[in-house]
Structure formats: structure tokens, C-alpha cells
Amino acid sequence: MNIGIMGTGYVGLVHGAVLSSYGFNVTCMDVDEHKIKQLAAGISPIYEPGLEQLIQRGIESGTLSFTSNAQQVVQTSDVIFIAVGTPSKKDGSADLSYVRSVVQTISNHLNGYKVVVCKSTLPIGSSSRIAEQLNGALQASGASFRVDVASNPEFLRQGQAVSDALSPSRIVIGTNSDAAKQMLQRIYATQIERKVPVLYTNAETAEMVKYAANSFLAVKISFINELALLAEKVGANIDDIAEGMGLDSRISPHFLQAGPGYGGSCFPKDTEAVVDIGKRNGEDLLVVQAAIQANKKQKQKMITKIASRLSFNGKLRGRTVAVWGLSFKPDTDDIRDAPSRDIIQGLVDLGATVKVYCPQGMRQARRLWSELNGAIHYCDSEAESAANADAIVLMTEWAQFRNVDLAAIASNMRGNRAMFDLRNMFAMNTDVQQLFSYYGVGTYSEPKVYSLQEAK
Ligand SMILES: NC(=O)C1=CN([C@@H]2O[C@H](COP(=O)(O)OP(=O)(O)OC[C@H]3O[C@@H](n4cnc5c(N)ncnc54)[C@H](O)[C@@H]3O)[C@@H](O)[C@H]2O)C=CC1
Ligand SMILES: O=C(O)[C@H]1O[C@H](OP(=O)(O)OP(=O)(O)OC[C@H]2O[C@@H](n3ccc(=O)[nH]c3=O)[C@H](O)[C@@H]2O)[C@H](O)[C@@H](O)[C@@H]1O
């Protein structure tokens, strides 16, 4: 079977590489020619564990190829996956311009029956509208064939995208067409044989499952984050609270890790989009709206907390802060909507000197955060960023932060040597806590009086 993938981002590229490893003939298409050149040379433009090796194996075995020729992909594929981005517009609604463009391209080049599969996260009703558009154009041109359109949302997590695509938690197939359903069953035969649960439903339900899942997870995080703020005030410990809650299987221990607020390319945009979809349909999604508000508050609270411990008169002028981790989570280079961006901006606005280090996120940060370029200093290591700093803000729980020589790092810092551990990585480690004035999230800590001379 020939499979075409439109869009070689986190989803399209990982999906294409995994399907090629099952022996399907996969061609990935992207309008970004630089990306296509890199990919054709076996270089992954994104950092995802195991991805580059999978791409190289696919190229070597001849099952994976890359092109910017849309016509070729459309005409030679039996199944075409749409995996382009659906970012937020200013009003929170999903920007469908990339999807519209790719659908128009498909429409221009259709030469026979195909199954078009929507893998991008799309507002409810989109797949049916795409089917109408494609079949309307075919009918108008007098074509003797139709196409089927299915919704097949993606649930992979960045940082473990390849393993999630190989072993997904579930497969959701939304279509009323038996032919499309059978085609997708063939594509997912390996996972289905391995007993991955499959939900067959209509396209609208499949589209809504995706928004429901992401919104629910965002609600769960905002819930625990708000309770973390309260725990700090009342002398309770949020990690123990999460454990105590999570032992109830109806609640589950997952996604109860308090932190600086959720980020990434999906939770922020998908929660905004589902609220917008609700409004358009006369339903206010109050719980999701509250999760969005609480997430904004959480990031602000982190800035206030750092400032209140480090500042004179509410300002951070004269203070140097090392920020560890820019990516929105570990094992990815993705900095889209990362909480680090808001927190760094807050520190810079208060006058702090900010030195940053991230194992993978700095290349993207230099490129995408150009407005911060003069204001922050990029460092090559944890130690370099923390040298002579008043504080470390641990933003992202990269595993390597556990293995650095924190005693040596602390001895090169100044003042009270604060550590704001916004991921509670060292919340159980009293040795580390003794090296620093340690502040976790949702754990009570005595305010320490700052000992340095007042900064000018
Ligand atoms: N990133 C993630 O972890 C997940 C993303 N999703 C959803 O999957 C979709 C894609 O997300 P990402 O892969 O993160 O996006 P991305 O932004 O990483 O990649 C999108 C790619 O599409 C390409 N593109 C844009 N217009 C095109 C066109 N007309 N023809 C061909 N290619 C075109 C872009 O050049 C880019 O390479 C979104 O709807 C997202 O919500 C779903 C689950 C997980
Ligand atoms: O639609 C998507 O793009 C994807 O969004 C999320 O995946 P991802 O954004 O890669 O990362 P998560 O692990 O879900 O983390 C998202 C954010 O929530 C934060 N988080 C997560 C869990 C937690 O307990 N606490 C917490 O603060 C993370 O630090 C991160 O900023 C979902 O988990 C995927 O199922 C989904 O496919």
C-alpha cells in the first residue's frame, strides 16, 4: 500500500517513519523544502529519541522517501494523511489555513479513489466538510470516482513520540465508510494484533475525543497546580497529596505532577480551540475555561514567588538567575508555548540578568525568541549558567539535571544560592536542599531573608 503524509512535523514525520518500518511504502511531503532536503539526507529536523535512526532505516530499506512534490504524492498514494499544523489564532480558534491549503492541493491532483485521513487535530465537523469539498469538486469536474475521508486523531506525546506511535494507548477511527475503515485496519494491523484498543465511531466523535482528552488532561494539571498553591500556604505537601489522591484508581496517579503550568504546542491551543467551538455552538465550557485561567495564574505565581524571595522592592535589578530547561518538557527540543518563555520574560521585565541552559531547546529558542536575544545569555552547561548567579530556576525536568555536581555548582553561586525547583525534582533530596535555599512547588518552605547587599 502506498501512503502519503502531508506535513512532516512531530506527528507526520513520526507517523510516516513508523509506518515505513512496518513495510508500507511511505512518502512524506512538506512545503518546507529545507526540511525535505535534510530529511532526504537522513537528518531529522526535530529531536525525538529514536526518530533519526528510524528515518535512516526507512530510507535505506527504500520504504521511506521525502518530497515537496504534492502532485506526485497525491497521485501515487492509496491513503493520504493530513498532518499539518492547526495553531491558535489570536481569538483562540484553530487556524485552519494550512489544512485548507493542503486540502486544495489534494483536490487539484486527485486521480482516483483514495482515503484521506485527518491526523491533525481539527475542529469538530472538519472531516465531513473536507469530504464535501473534495467530493463536490470531483462531481463538478465530472469525475467517475469519489474519495472517503476519515478522522484518525493522534495521541502521541513529544519526547516519546516514536514509542507512543509504535505502541499507542488507543486508535480512534472516525468514519462511516467501510472501505476507509478497512484501509485503516490494514494500516494499523500490527498494533491491532498487539491488542491496542480500537474505537470505531463517526468522524465528529473522533474529532471530539481528541479535544476532550487534551482538555481533560489540562484540567487535571491546573487542578493539581491550584491545590499546590494552597498546599504551600497551609503547610501541606502536594506530591504526597497527589500520591494520596492517585492511589484511588478512579483518579489515577498520572498527570498530577504540580509544576509551573502546562505548555507545549497542544494543550494551550486545544483548550482555547475547544472553548471557541463551545461558544460557536452556544455552550460555555466553564471547566476548560477555568483550567486555562488557572494555567495563566500559575505561571504568574511562579514569577511572583521567585521575585518575592530574591528581590528588593519587588525588582530583580542586580540579580542573576540561571534558568535550566527551556523546552516545555524533557526529551524534546520543542519550545512552543513553553512556560519557560513567560517566566523568563517576567524575570527580565523585573530587571534580572537571565542565563539559560537547556540540553535541546536552545537552538529553537535562539531562532524563535529573537526578541529576547539581547536580554538573555545562552550557556553551554548547567555550571556555566549558574556561575555567580543568585538563583537557579529549574523549569524542565531533564534527567541530566539529577547528575550534575550540584555541590560544585552551589559553591560557585552567590547570595543565598536559591534553587526554585519548579518540577520538584529534588523535593525528596535533603542533601540537595541543604546546598541551596530550596523552594519547590506546593511544598512549604520558610522564607529566607536575602543576605546580599542591596543591589543598585
Ligand atoms: N506535536 C504533537 O505532539 C501532536 C500534534 N498533534 C496535532 O497534529 C498536527 C500537526 O502537529 P505538529 O506535527 O506538531 O506540527 P508541526 O508544526 O511540527 O508540523 C507541521 C508541518 O506541516 C507543514 N506544512 C504546512 N503546510 C503544508 C502544506 N500545505 N503541505 C504540506 N506540508 C505543510 C509544515 O511545513 C510543517 O513541517 C496539529 O494539528 C497538532 O495539534 C496531535 C498529537 C500530538
Ligand atoms: O495533542 C498533543 O499534542 C499531545 O499533547 C500532550 O502531549 P505533550 O504536549 O507532548 O506533552 P505532555 O506530556 O502531555 O505534557 C504537556 C504539558 O503538561 C505538563 N505536565 C504534564 C503532566 C503533569 O502531571 N504535569 C504537568 O505540568 C508538561 O510539563 C507539559 O508542559 C498529550 O499528552 C498527548 O496525548 C497529545 O497527543
UniProtKB/TrEMBL annotation:
GO MF annotations in UniProt: NAD binding; UDP-glucose 6-dehydrogenase activity
Domain UDP-glucose/GDP-mannose dehydrogenase C-terminal: 322-428
UniProt binding sites for substrate: K210, F255, L256, Q257, A258, G259, G263, K329
SMART domains: UDPG_MGDP_dh_C (SM00984)
Enzyme kind, highest EC tier: oxidoreductase
UniProt-listed Enzyme Commission number(s): 1.1.1.22
Pfam families cross-referenced by the UniProt entry: UDPG_MGDP_dh, UDPG_MGDP_dh_C, UDPG_MGDP_dh_N
Binding positions (NAD(+)): D30, K35, T86, T121, K269, R336
Any single GO BP term: UDP-glucuronate biosynthetic process
Record Gene3D superfamilies: Cytochrome c1, transmembrane anchor, C-terminal (1.20.5.100), NAD(P)-binding Rossmann-like Domain (3.40.50.720)
UniProt keywords, alphabetically: NAD, Oxidoreductase
Active-site residues from the entry: C266 (nucleophile)
Pathway: Nucleotide-sugar biosynthesis; UDP-alpha-D-glucuronate biosynthesis; UDP-alpha-D-glucuronate from UDP-alpha-D-glucose: step 1/1
Reaction catalyzed: UDP-alpha-D-glucose + 2 NAD(+) + H2O = UDP-alpha-D-glucuronate + 2 NADH + 3 H(+)
Family: Belongs to the UDP-glucose/GDP-mannose dehydrogenase family.
Cross-referenced PANTHER family: UDP-GLUCOSE 6-DEHYDROGENASE TUAD (PTHR43750:SF3)
Name under which the protein is recorded: UDP-glucose 6-dehydrogenase
